[in-house]
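Researcher: For the record, we're logging two predictions in this thread. I'll number them. Prediction 1 follows.
Model: Prediction 1, sequence and structure:
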Amino acid sequence: MRTFLLVLTACLLSACASTPLPSADPKMAWIDLETQTGKLVMAERLDNRRMTDGRYFQVTPGSHELMVRFDFEVFVGGMGMFSDPQERLCYVTLNYDNFQPGQRYRLQARSLGFNAYARLYNAAGKVVAEERLVNCLP
């Protein structure tokens, strides 16, 4: 029974990963997610409502609050010795008041030590918002 559940879970996860992204609606703004220092960044909440697909945000023009889940590793050690990496899970929230229809944005999450940060870039690569709130576990 345990093997069956593991196989079923693996199949369901692979089905989600292979689902293509929908096409961008030109009447809405699209937000891509990326990280260069972490393992995973996923859309968690839009205006305090849980997302059904964590790979992107697509929002109406105007003001929105975005929350992403950001997983990364930290190395801790004692007496000058590094241990195995430890997982750190953070929820990072940012607000932006001026999403424009048909525009693409990029939300980049990054880590520095035990801290998580996020920036929202417009299509020209300019920073338009930074994290407002960061909650991390452990």
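Researcher: Logged. Prediction 2.
Model: Prediction 2, sequence and structure:
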Amino acid sequence: MRKLTLVLSAIYLAAIGLALVLVPLQFGVGAVPQDASPELVALLRLLGGPFLGIAVLNWLTRNAEPSSTLRAVLIANLVGFGAVAANDVWGVASGEAREIAKVFLVVHLLFAIAFAAAVRAALGGGRARAG
């Protein structure tokens, strides 16, 4: 399950990152004006970089053996997806988000739950080895 979560999140994050870098106006339709300033477009492209980096990190750790490094990657993903899911909940509940935010909410919440389960398994495994 951990490997599947890392692989799927790597693919998802790579797609988001590439969309932000290559087609930021189309990706942000409904949130980004078609006549967006060059500075806004540059900012969206800048944000794509970390998505690509985390996608690569997740891909490269998909086969990693249990370790403190793997736990750190899993916890970081849990924090990231958890924060984004919370933001989606806020946006959807307040009516401030685009309609597609409902889809992203489900995706991000599922990733947060999957990473929470992976973290729990990784931390539980660490305690079992120590005991």
